[in-house]
Amino acid sequence: MSVSNLHSLFNRPWYIEQNYAQGHMPLVMGILTGNTLGEKDDVKKKPSLVRLADVQASPGSTDTRVAVLNIKNPIVKHDQFCGPQGTKSMMRQLDRLKGDDSIAGVVLDIDSGGGQAYGTPEFYDYLMDYPKPVVAYTDGLMCSAAYYIGSASSEIIANKRAEAIGSIGAYSQLFDLDGFYEKQGVKVHTMYATKSTEKNKSYRDAMKGEEFYGSYIKEELDPLVDNFISDMQAARPNINSEVFKGATYSGEKALEMGLVDALGTLDTAIQRVFELSEKQNPKSTQMSKNYPKIETVIGKTFAEGEAANGVLLT
Q: What are the Peptidase S49 domain coordinates in residue numbering (predicted)?
């Protein structure tokens, strides 16, 4: 992750499943101790935008395709150096497809335990207003921020073996770094203006110890969860309210709880996009749904599932 975005790691709440978060802590500690890749001149950043590959279809063909956007990393708002692509870049990618009549719709292929609360509702709003059919699919994790994003789709398809779906909620882990800095020979002095009595109050209270966590929870975390739940109720009115406690469910149980619409495979999700597109545009024609050719949206040929930023299925 980018050193320039450390503030978002340590000072902002997360929509994330805890085991998934803990699995990424070595990376965070590596950043703190300097044992990770830095932004060096001799390292090229990956492109933040994608372009459509040339379509291997017959001249004059009106056949349509489905764009598959992979969301396989922690959810972050901005691109991370040698790390996840941010939701802002994902929106720019999808913007490029809006006016392309050859694109029937989009599948979000999700395997993520969540990520930053920062920026996630914005991506949800964007997907809710997207003009083409969007179907979310998971065969692994679709938790917290990742589920927030997926819920904005027209439908959610889960593999029956999907590991964990749900984790609707928010939490924070606040890092008191004073001891770390002191070990580096840095003495930290924090001062506030006389009139700034309420500035960072909930954070300052939390730093005093567990008995002072209440104001931070009420002022920072509870509003995030209230908004999360409100959006879930709007996007999925038949969802079982029990899921709002934050538990996760397997694919089959998630269907029972109203977290997903059907069980299936990535192919099921792709087929469903074609069907929704045909209902939306009954005069449109489609190419064979066996999609013998798979092209990435970054202009390189991959086997299915190997594309870094998504594929076009033809």
A: 131-276
Look up residue 27 and give its two tokens: 């990376």
E strands, the chain, are 14-16, 65-71, 103-112, 114-116, 134-143, 155-158, 164-166, 248-249, 262-263, 294-296, 311-313
Q: Which residue has the tokens 């709440």?
A: 13
For 30-88, the pLDDT digits (tens) are 545 556 544 444 444 443 333 332 233 333 445 789 999 999 988 989 887 666 789 99
The top-level CATH class assigned to 3-313 is alpha beta
Q: Which amino acid is at 226?
A: D
**Where do the structural domains in the chain lie, given as residue ranges?**
3-313
Tokens at 29, concatenated: 């500690």
pLDDT for 27 equals 56
The per-residue pLDDT for 251 is 97
CA distance 259 to 140: 14
Cα separation values, 147 from 111, 244, 274, Å:
10, 12, 23
